[in-house]
Amino acid sequence: MSLIRPFTGLRPVPERAADVAAPPYDVLSSDEARARAAGRPLSFLHISKPEIDLAPDVDPYSPTVYAKGAENFAALIKQGVLQRDKKACYYVYRLIMGRHVQTGIVAAASVAAYDNGHIRRHELTRPDKEDDRVRQIDALNAQTGPVLLTYRHSDAVDAIVRTISAAAPEFDITADGGVRHALWVVRDAEIGLHLAAAFEAVPTLYIADGHHRAAAASRIAASRRAANPGHTGVESYNYFLSVIFPDNQMQIFDYNRVIRDLNGLTCEDFIRRVKQSFSMSTCATPVKPARAGEFGMYLPGQWYRLTLNSGLMAERDPVARLDVSLLAAHLIEPVLGISDPRRDKRIDFVGGIRGLPELVKRVDSGEMAVAFSLFPTGMHDLMAVADAGEMMPPKSTWFEPKLADGLVSHVID
């Protein structure tokens, strides 16, 4: 079974790529998307967040929203802004954020490989979010939000990607946050075959981000397979849109926590409880942990450095030894009383790209009572959890830079 295959991508004509490129649908609220797309009629946000073109009080999960997205999608195709390649291709995609560069491939990944564990996951999904992606794919008859995949890097794949990206790209644009997005189309069939052969030696792919998109693709494939008496397994619905980077080029930021209250404790009692499991010192500047087992904690007007007691660091389980798990097990659950961070409204999560000032802002405003900064989860941790068939706690990884929506879509014929 092949993990990946080329496909006939639907993408903006090069001169319109900058106008179309949009942040991923799930990193913006409806209000933020509405503001970001103002005055930009070609922005892919009109497709990925189509509620922005309807009344502000519309339910973003109503049938009219998905219909509006399909209407907007069809309009960009009719206008010639989005055009489909005539033959199946792989694509090379490069992201540049500051000094960080990562280059990978865009391909159609096998749903069967996802279903049988050759494409491995590390995160639970929510049915409502899966339902949203299923409805969106069905309405558009296309996958427009790529799943971010990774693999243990391969010299053979790296060499082919370097050769392809040595030529001039189809486009090289600068989008939100100053991040550059460059795309190459692999039109040479022989090079495409070499790329496919190199990936045949890659035993496993890992979902880095996009678990709901992958799960939705699996559900779409199952329903269309059941409805197709002539099913062969090669239909496009058996594959999902993916962007695949080697693990040694991926960049994970910290994913920090903010808590609404101290669970009925006074500040003094709270600190006393924290000291039962952590050594603690005050700091005059924000605390960005430098290693695993170290945490920053912010109470109004004061930063603290916390170090988990050494006897509590002996976990061997790949999930239990994660910093997000250790903080939950020894502080957030026993002291603050939050046992289900997936559903408890007293906890929120702040991606490290927002910086430590965001933690200070949310506590000093009175919205939150305490904030915690964490050391980033490592790629080796993600793979170890996935290989063990286990699941990470929610909000364990924040990948940067983010992929752009709209640069390549996978039509489901």
Structural class: alpha+beta
Q: What's the gyration radius in Å?
A: 22 Å
Please give the share of residues in helix.
25-40%
Q: What is the strand content?
A: 15-25%
How does the major sheet shape up? 9 strands, mixed
Give the count of structural domains.
Answer: 2
Number of strands: 21
In DSSP terms (H or I, runs of 4 or more residues), the helix count works out at 13
Q: Please give the alpha-carbon distance between the first and last residues.
A: 21 Å
| Unreliable runs | none
Shape: globular
Summed over residues and divided by their number, the pLDDT gives a mean of 95
Main traits of this protein?
413 residues, globular, nine-stranded mixed β-sheet, Conserved hypothetical protein from pyrococcus furiosus pfu- 392566-001, domain 2, 24% strand, alpha+beta
Task: Explain this structure.
With 413 residues, the protein is α+β, with helices and mostly antiparallel strands. The chain has 2 domains: 4-251 and 400-411, no CATH class; 255-375, Conserved hypothetical protein from pyrococcus furiosus pfu- 392566-001, domain 2. The chain has 13 helices and 21 strands. It has helices spanning 17-20, 30-37, 45-48, 63-78, 111-115, 127-140, 155-165, 189-200, 211-227, 267-274, 323-332, 356-364, 379-387, and strands spanning 4-5, 9-12, 82-84, 90-97, 100-110, 119-120, 142-143, 147-151, 171-174, 180-186, 205-209, 239-246, 252-253, 255-259, 278-283, 294-299, 302-308, 347-351, 370-373, 398-399, 409-411. Strands 1, 4, 5, 6, 8, 9, 10, 11 and 12 form a 9-stranded mixed β-sheet that branches. Helix 4 runs parallel beside helix 6 (127-140) and helix 7 (155-165) runs antiparallel to helix 8 (189-200). The mean pLDDT is 95.
